[in-house]
Every structure is written in C-alpha cells, then in structure tokens.
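Async update (no meeting this week)

Hi team, since we skipped the sync, here's where things stand on the single-chain job. The sequence we agreed to prioritize is pasted below, unchanged from the tracker. I ran it this morning and attached the output directly underneath so nobody has to dig for it. Comments welcome in thread, and please keep replies under the output.
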Amino acid sequence: MAGWDEHHWNPVEGSGLPRSARRSGPYASYRPDPLTGSALRLGTEVDAAVARAEQSVRDLDRRSFAGLIPLARLLLRSEAIASSRIEGISPSPKQAALAELGQHESVAGVNQAARLVAQNMTVVTEASAAIASAEQVTVDQLVDLQRSLLTDAPRLHGLRRTQNWVGGSAYHPLDAEFVPPAPQGVPAAMEDLVRYMNGAAHSPIVQAALVHAQFETIHPFADGNGRVGRALIHTVLTRRGLTQASILPVSLVLATFDDHYIGGLTAFRHDDAPDSESAHRARETWIAVFAGAVADAAAQASDLVDDVDELHQDWLARIERHRDTTGLRRALRRDSAVRAIVDGLPGTPVLTPTSVRRIHGVSMNAASKALESLHGADVLTTVSIGRGLRAYLCPDVLDLVTLTERRLASTRFDTRASSPNRPVPQRP
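Output:
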C-alpha cells in the first residue's frame, strides 16, 4: 500500500559542508502503489477526455504533407531544443541542426550545447525505437537509455544507491518538496514499472500517463530522470501503436502548465488503500491533467502541420518562378532530387551534397545541382562549416522551430495573447 516511510537524516561526518548544510532530522520518503494489477475507475468526463485525446493523436498521425518522417524529425527537434532550454542549455535551432549534420561529416564552429541536444535527439530516437519494438521492456533498457544520455557522467549511471529528493536544499532532504522511495525500494519498483509497460491493461494514453507519473515518483536515477521520463511518454504511445512516427510535444505543454503538472503529480501520490475511492480519485486527477496535455499537444502539432504545408507550397512556388526565370519550362518532376530535398526539408533543414547523397540516394553531381537550384530559388541559404566547406540551410524551417517553441511556452499557445512563461528565444 502507498504511503510515507519515516527516516532520520544524518549529515556525513567530515564532509566539509557549511554549518547550515549539516542539519539532521526526520524526513519521509514516498512509497507508491505497484502499477501492475492496479484497479482504475475513471469518471465519465475524464474517460471522455481520454477518448478525445486519443482520437486527436490518431488524426494527427494520419496527417502529413509528404510523409511522417520529416514532420516527426521537426517535432523532435522542436521539443529537444525547448526541453534543453528548460534544463539551462540554450542552443539555437541553427546550431542544433549543424550539430546533427556534424554527427555524419566535418562541421566546424558547433558549440557544446548544440552537440548535446543533437546527441540527445539521436539517443532518444534510437533507444525509444528499440524499446518500443522490443518484445519485452526491461529495466536494463531504461538504464541503458539513461547511460546514453549521460555519457560524460559515468558515476551517475544506473539505478541510484542513495536517497535523492526534489527541491529544498542540495545537502539534505529535510526541506524537500518531494522525497522519492528509499534506494532499497527502487529495483522492485522499476521491475513493476516495466511489467506494467509490457501489458495493455489500460488505454495507451492512460498507460503513458501512469508510466510517466510512476517513473517520476520513483525517480530511479541520480540524474537524467526528466529526460528519461519524457522519452517514456513517446515510447509508450509508439509501443501501443497510437503514434507511428509523430512526436507529441506533451512534456512542453506540461511544462507550460507547470502548476497543473505538479498538482497532478502531487495528487497521484496518495497514501490511501489501493482500491479506496480517494486512491481512484488521485489517479483520475493526474490522468485528466495528462489527457488534457496530450490533446493540447496534438492540436499544436496539427497547427505545425498546417504551417509546414503552407511553407511547402511556398517553396514549390519559389522553385517554379526560379525555373521560369532560368528558361526551364518543364514542370518539376516528383522524382527529382530537388523535389526529394524539398519534401524532406522539415526533417533535414541543413544539408550538404554528401548528406543529400546519403539521405536521398542521388549522385553527388545531382545533389550539388539540386542544392544550387534551391539556393537560386531562395529556398536555401549557405553557411560556412569549415575552410572551403559550406552547408545549405533552410531559414524558414529554423524560424518555424523558434516560433513553435515560443508558442508552446504560452498558456494561450499564442504569444500575442499570453507572453511565454519560461525563457524562449527572440522572435526571428
């Protein structure tokens, strides 16, 4: 049964901490109910909200101007950059896209923050796909995900062996806002979490909601809990078939409505009997918050699809005008290198002839000619990436990433109606 376990905190002797940090005293850590086999009763309104959210995600996953993969990459980039900003890392969309390119070829002048975001994008994509397609999810897979996100901090890898906490002092849990389970309870709690992930007792959105809340409640790692917890939302939705390639910016919506998010998680952490009415209400309160965030995220992603559709049509119009001015009268072929690049621009807004050959399977000559054609049509600009080297980038896509981040930080999803409530880049 869920509840609070009493402990006594004693500072480490001879640690050299200031007197104010050497407090001792009682504190309580939270022990959650297992998810496997847990009962769940949702009221009519919350049940309907979950159904609406699920339908909105399915509708989004069916939409795309030229396939889901470029759009999914755009959504992933938008969320990765905005999430990194929440954690105090602030690369520009241009730097992040150059860092992605730098994972495959030489690119000079990319800052460390951008490299970190690009690495996280690759890791989350590959690990989430592996977990989503695995026959059985294991704790080791989640540990591997955390390890790959914290490559420069090996001492923090793996399930924690010490008590951690959220808020308050960095030196003791006596004033913490929340204290997760004691370390000896973490392995069993994580085994229960993956058992629940491997089942289908509840709908995909309910399962994603409970997995995220339980994971953040267990707080199983010394660091990286936020990043892994966000990745698990996408993993569960993909694993259950609700999303195939779309990336919902659910965690950004939750961050925008931080009071609701914290309130929902706090309500989830009840200390009543598992099948009591209050326990059902606790889970229902959190699920309502999560379902609302999913619906908002799907709506914002759908608006982004509209924005991309509009850009795509504008790019094609610019290309046709450029072709007319250069005497090319034939219509652009759908199987041309130019069209392949344009259709993929939302996912790959920074390109070189080498990357075009790698991504689209065309010759170096065709790739170079296509990029120059798009440069002449004002679809792409150029940037130096080293001595004698240049890349082609699409400012429209990079500006759209910035505008999306700004919009998702507004409680009205419109910065004209409500200013962003967290740090965001300047309007392009």
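Quick observations from my side:
DSSP finds 15 helices and five strands in the chain.
The first helix runs from residue 44 to 61.
Reply here if anything looks off.
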